Amino acid sequence: MYMQHLKTRFPTLQRLLVKDLMSKDVIYAEVPGGRDEVLSIMRSKKVTGLPVVKKGTRKVVGVVTRRDLMKKPDEEQVALIMSRDHPTVEPSDTISKVIKLITERKVRLLPVTVNGELIGVITVSDLVYKALANSNLTTPVKEYMDRRIPTIWEKTPLPVAYSIMNWAGTQVLVVLDDNSKMVGIVTEHDFLNLGEVVYKQRTSSTKPSSEEEWDWSVSTIIYIGKGQLSLPPKPVSEIMSKQLITVPDFLPLNECAKKLQRYDVNQAPVVNAKGELMGVIYDVQMIKALLETS
């Protein structure tokens, strides 16, 4: 009964195709190429991933993401960092197919190709901003939010915070103060902007200088393979975003999509009527509502 209600409220999804939502102004990386160039593009354009083409052509050979860069800091060549088996779609493919690929393969970007040639991209943001925001889907946010809230203390050193983010398998951490009050948010992008890859022969870290239970003295180097992502021993509070973009748990999905677009974010803490933290809503969870209407 509920699903039928959604279908009657948003019937046009069945007719939406990739060509209706894709972005034609494509930013891409090339092979051969280096990580510094890719990182520079990601930082300046504020994107999380790039299609990769063979230099001098538009032939798609893979996709490189900021997570790829952070997982393989010892590699310099884009060809050794990128994912080669990344799925692609064609302009005539349905949006339902796109959503299934994104959710099943856990990716945020799909190159759009014709005969293997890059003509555009379609992203989670395209689905949220162009489809969901303009839909009649009024399901409350609380139905799709993640109740597992990744939190961290504001005085946690950045190397520790980054490790926690990796171990938790999340791309965002909600920052709490000494009174457990939400005071900010830090994302994977913040670490990528701040951290630098350095190379050292030694692979041992400096031990804490004290044995106190709450001593946060740690090495400022996080080791990943041969390379090391260097982060300064600053507290999270110095790099977190203090502008908290929250959404009430009763907010309709389409209105939430508009708010994410307005502030150019892909997630937001969810609060109840008392302002208490209830969960986090992610754009990739929101697009599942579109899939359920098809």
Characteristics of this structure?
single chain, alpha/beta, CBS-domain, 3-stranded mixed beta sheet, flat
Helix fraction, binned, reads 25-40%
CATH-level-4 superfamily name of the domain at 142-282: CBS-domain
Quickly name the level 1 CATH class of the domain at 142-282.
Alpha Beta
- What fraction strand? 15-25%
User: Which sequence of SSEs, written as H and E, runs from N to C?
Assistant: HHEHEEHHHEEHEHEEHEEEEHEEHH
Structural class: alpha/beta
Largest sheet: 3 strands, mixed
Structural summary, described in words:
By secondary structure, the chain is α/β, with parallel strands linked by helices. The chain has a domain of 141 residues: CBS-domain, CATH 3.10.580.10. It is 31% helix and 22% strand. Helix 7 crosses helix 10. It is flat. The N terminus is likely disordered.
SSE topology:
Layout (H helix, E strand, L loop, with lengths): L1 H8 L8 H4 L7 E3 L3 H11 L3 E6 L5 E6 H6 L6 H4 L13 H11 L3 E6 L2 E7 H9 L18 E3 L4 H11 L3 E5 L5 E6 H7 L1 E3 L22 E4 L2 E4 L16 E2 L4 H11 L3 E5 L5 E6 H4 L1 H6 L1
Parallel strand pairs: 1-2, 6-7, 12-13
Antiparallel strand pairs: 2-3, 4-5, 7-8, 9-11, 10-11, 13-14
Helix pairs in contact: 7-10
Report a brief summary of the structure.
Helices cover 31% and strands 22% of the residues. It has helices at residues 2-9, 18-21, 35-45, 66-71, 78-81, 95-105, 124-132, 158-168, 188-194, 253-263, 283-286, 288-293, and strands spanning 29-31, 49-54, 60-65, 109-114, 117-123, 151-153, 172-176, 182-187, 196-198, 221-224, 227-230, 247-248, 267-271, 277-282. The chain has a 3-stranded mixed β-sheet with strand order 1-2-3. Strands 6-7-8 form a 3-stranded mixed β-sheet. Strands 9-11-10 form a 3-stranded antiparallel β-sheet.
